[in-house]
Amino acid sequence: CCCCCCWSIKMGSTHLFSLVITTFISIVIAVAPNPPSSTAIALQTAINNAIASHKNDFKVPSGMYEFNSVSFVIKHANNIHVNFEENVSLWFETGQGLLLDNCKNITINGNDLKIDYNPLPFLQMMVITNETYASKGSQEVTLQVEKGSFTPKQFWDVYGNDPSNEFIQGPQWWSQDANGSYNLVSSSFESIKESDFTMGKTGDWIYTGSMPKSVSVGDKITTVIRKGYTVLLHNSSDCLVSNLVLHSASFMAITEFDGIGRNTYDQIRVVRRQASECNDVPATRACLALVSSNADVFHSSGVQIGPVVKNCEFSYAFDDYFNVHSRVQVCVSSPHQQDKITSLIIADPRLAFDQGMPDDFPYGTVETMTNAKPGFHLSFHNFTSLLSENTATIVSLTRLASDDPVVKQAISSLSSVKGLNPLSVIITNSSKSRVWKVEVTGLQGDYDTNGKLTTLSEWNASGAIFENNYLHSSIDGVRWKSSNGEFRNNTWEHAVSVTGLEITPLRRFLEGPLTINNVTIEGNTFTNSNPSLITACQGMSHQAKPPFKSCTNIIVQDNHYPTPLN
Description:
single chain, mainly beta
């Protein structure tokens, strides 16, 4: 989801060991951000000029473009075709990526455009010796830091207290099979911490965290972060993005946040590099990045009309393959009526642990009420069943300043609402809040709105289509919240996860819409699984007790389960 649910996947028993990590780095990794290369600067300048002059076509020549500490930004572009020649790669540092900002009706034809990171956006080390000391009851494993990875100290110095990093997740342990591929052995959510590492006398590192019982020479360990974006469509609509290859992602691989949406994503591969694909990798970085996406592969949040995602391959991710949803608000006042106009206070809050991130960009800070306008409708929902209880038409709305006394009251009211994650209505470095005074008409009966969940009826991420995609080698599932949507003809290998394929609102994370209807799940192949993989209105990881009552006409038919699990 980026739901950040507290799960732990363990594919083998684990216990505490003493772990010795010796740092072998042939090339020193710079911690300070690097400026973009001259070729990257020239490319950014050229596309800025093409957009300003309203060109209809733009070609990106073959080559390596090292954007490093800045993003490649396509902004306020309309009706333009961006075509990449063969053998183009874009390189970024953590937090940066390809950004389409406020664009409409543009086409990105990547022609197998490669997007990757240097340094790696996660910690990656390899086991080079393995010793067992029966007298100590411990095992010592020496690890070599891979090229392009920070040392443990650098890693926590950079990301440990970074407010724009959602959190540090790990460790993940990988073992090499007979074909040379690294497969996941165990994964923990947030069990690793800086205090697990202590400096040895000779410059090595002692790690005392959890690990599998059996660790062999050649195994590897990773620990991921959640910062920034890799491919982001922000407040954009009717765009086509196709033929991209993403080899690593510092948070979610592909995201679309806010705006009308109705975007299409075709033939995008989020995969590891093969041995034959190392020609464009800088000498300062190992070719193989074990993790293709640090969190969700594809995440759509707060768009009016859901995406079309087709003919893609998603793999090696540490959260959902796919999550599409709108946003939920909380009414924090009882109605105040005057001259047939009812005044309400609506909070459009976001997750408190995302408060330090740039506003309206990462998962936890995307807003909905910024899209509302007179004539739109607010739906009021029962907190337990999520069924709609009342509807009103918006007459006017005003965003309140953060120092408004009403905002302080809203914060107090939110803290008393049980069953939600910690929320914030304050925007860092802004005088604005996420609290709105909304005037409405049409509220029926003597209805107390205080504490009710609300949704914007016209902004519900409906119509998503996910078809002919190949999902494999990841630990989580699919979270679907798009009415009038289709999940068809996909292949999902080893479809085993706590999440499964959930058609459900996520109340705890304010992921809507709260009513979901007319969804078809048809013609898919789920290996190593069974029909219980698919659930409706049971909440995140089936934790809604009792289940919600707001999912209707969910059609599940003609799906296939080769090698089913009992």
